[in-house]
Amino acid sequence: MIGAIIVVYNPDLALAERLLTRVYNQTEHVVIVDNSPKAHDFSKVIEHYEYMHFPANLGIAAAHNHGLRYLLSIGCEYGLLLDQDSQITTDFVFRLSSLMMASKSLKQDIAAIGPSISCSFTNKTERSLIQREVFEYEELVGVTQIIASGMLIDLGFLDQIGFKDEKLFIDGVDHEWCWRARDMGLQIAKAKKIEMVHRLGDSRSKFIGVTYKVGSPIRLYYQFRNILLLSRRSYVPLYWKVRCLGLIPVRFFLNSTMQQNRLDRIRYMLYGLVDGLKGISGSYATNRR
Q1: Are the CB atoms for 164 and 61 separated by under 8 Å?
Q2: Domain that holds residue 73
Q3: Residue 54: partners with Cβ closer than 8 Å, 6 or more residues away
Q4: What distance in Å separates the CA atoms of residue 196 and residue 15, rounded to the nearest whole number?
Q5: What distances in angstroms separate CA 202 from CA 6, 206, 219, 272, one per listed residue?
Q6: Quick one: what percent of the chain has pLDDT higher than 70?
Q7: CATH number at residue 113
Q8: Which keywords does UniProt give here (predicted)?
Q9: To bridge 225 with a disulfide, which of 3, 89, 179, 272 should be the other Cys (CB 3.0-4.6 Å)?
């Protein structure tokens, strides 16, 4: 059985409902984990679903874990993670799960497979300039990490890998889980011919001809802090540590001079750096009460 976990937070209802309609027709079970302050009713678009509401916002890692534990409890073999603003085709789950089952029959030990990502801002397929490909086999390419949305997980490996790291709260959660799986000898793969439209960041800006992602001010706290937290871990790839640590001054400059809400951005970045150096994890709301 395949179950889907859709995490929502103050969602654009039109986008979320379109996604739910697509997912409902392709999976046996749908779990909606709602981190919004106000509850939402999706019964007008899908008939049967498990709804979990956490108005205090537990973060993406905890939301995934609640959904994954539920899927395990009802006997699902695979779990599909999706964000509220992702867009999938009518055969998305079938194609992705077919690749997973084929790889399992070949005993390839693939813990998760994700699609190629087309950014809704640029309408271009995202390609990493530095992430190395681990292997290539027909329609799959082995990679070091994939994003959470669109990730199909073989739930049988969760006992070995563990669940998502809730201490990170949001940024880096998907990559950390992939790195941990690879450190245990398992593989993470991307489907070369399956594409999913997804919104990466809140907007885009350009500086001296280079386009970069822009997120909300509070996300900077988690991004800066989690870079420092993850850089201490031995299984995190060296290229990621060098790249992210090296870009901290650049990102600090861009967010403190080139964006709106500059004072808020500076405050969140500084808090993130301080808490990261101190090894403080969890939610901003808890740490900065």
Answers
A1: yes
A2: 2-198
A3: 33, 34, 35, 62, 63, 66
A4: 14
A5: 19, 14, 10, 19
A6: 90
A7: 3.90.550.10
A8: Glycosyltransferase, Transferase
A9: 272
